[in-house]
Amino acid sequence: MNMARITASVYTSHVPAIGAAMDMGKTKEDYWKPLFAGYDFSKQWMKDNKPDVVFLVYNDHATAFSLDVIPTFAIGTAAEYKPADEGWGPRPVPVVKGHPELASHIAQSVIQQDFDLTIVNKMDVDHGLTVPLSLMVGELDPAKDAWPCPVIPFAVNVVQYPIPSGQRCFNLGQAIRKAVESFDEDLNVHIWGTGGMSHQLQGARAGLINREWDNAWLDKLINDPVACAQIPHIDYVREAGSEGIELVMWLIARGAMADVNNGQVTGKLPKVTHRFYHVPASNTAVGHAILENA
Ligand code: DHB
Ligand code: FE
Predict the structure, then answer these.
(1) Which residues contact 245 (CB under 8 A, 6 or more apart)?
(2) pLDDT one-digit tens code per residue, 156-197
(3) Mean of the per-residue pLDDT values for the chain?
(4) How many helices (H) and strands (E) would you count in the chain?
(5) Contact status, residue 12 vs residue 281, Cβ threshold 8 Å
(6) 1 pLDDT exceeds 80?
(7) Residues 26-69 pLDDT 10s
């Protein structure tokens, strides 16, 4: 029987300065070298395990969605997405090609599973989406290169309260996996959870980083995702800073892994293919992991 499958999940931070460092040829500078070294393995892994589609969970930073309209969960069903102009011109990276057929199927299935998604037929994608792609793929020339596969952008509101709980995100990941597995084409799908880890960009605690909490949280995400999903917003904000709340998006990807069924871990935990943590990158603690279904 033909069927699409999620085989792996990727987690990574999305700091805009990382995109700028790549676009301006600064990756070999002392400040950036150790950060990019953590992704050498990942770029090779992407080549060796090239997905047919990436389902990329990210957040828009008031770029495609202004504060006029704020969808909680938005799925991109378009054929392509242009890199957004975030104030310094669009990043010089290829246009992101979508997968309208699979995206529409997932929208249909996930909405029928009672998650009310917003359907987006046209939008630009900001650093929340393009920086994770650049980290996992490397530098490309937009004039002659393309991203290795189609991408389905899935935007989560983590910018303006009220934002979804970790539990809601975890449950949604399970619904996304069901949706993917009911698509009758043999497709290898990777799901990415992006944003985080600890950072706070404004206020009295600007610059906050919490290495101990980040690493304990990542342990929990990997080994006890059911408990991780129960962590309330206030813990993220207190321990990982106001923007650390972006981490709830990682729970969508984790909930889509094969060990999770009906809200419990019933299968074998995924294999930790790669894990990396680095401070500093701009104002953010960069976390990264690759999990493959056991
Ligand atoms: C930074 C991090 C972010 O997640 C973001 O969206 C913007 C800036 C930073 O560390 O500079
Ligand atoms: Fe951000």
Answers:
(1) 158, 163, 233, 236, 237
(2) 999 999 999 999 999 999 999 999 999 999 999 999 999 999
(3) 98
(4) 10, 13
(5) no
(6) no
(7) 999 999 999 999 999 999 999 999 999 999 999 999 999 989 99
Query: Amino acid identity, residue 51?
Result: P
Q: Is 127 marked active-site?
A: yes
Residue with CA at minimum distance from ligand 1 atom 1: 15
Q: Which SS3 state, helix, strand or coil, does residue 96 take?
A: strand
Cβ 17 under 6 angstroms from ligand 1: yes
Break the chain into its structural domains and give their ranges. 5-292
What is the C-alpha to C-alpha distance for residues 1 and 7, in angstroms, rounded to an integer? 17
How far is the centre of ligand 1, averaged over its atoms, from the C-alpha of 282 (Å)? 7
Place of tokens 């992101």: 96
Please tell me the distance between residue 284's alpha carbon and the centre of ligand 1 in angstroms. 7
| Active-site position among 199, 233, 274, 288 | 199
Q: How confident is the model at residue 240 (pLDDT cuts 50, 70, 90)?
A: very high
**In terms of Cα–Cα distance, which of 197, 123, 136, 128 is closest to 156?**
128
Does the beta carbon of 15 lie inside 6 Å of ligand 1? yes
- Cβ–ligand 1 distance for 292 under 6 Å, the answer no
| CATH topology assigned to domain 5-292 | Protocatechuate 4,5-dioxygenase; Chain B (3.40.830)
284 in contact with ligand 1, CB cutoff 6 A: yes
The pLDDT value given to residue 143: 95
Measuring from atom 2 of ligand 1, which residue has the nearest CA?
15
Q: Tokens 């992006």 map to which residue? A: 194
User: Ligand 1: does its nearest atom lie under 6 Å from the Cβ of 61?
Assistant: yes
Q: Dihedral of the CA atoms 40, 41, 42, 43 (nearest 10)?
A: 50
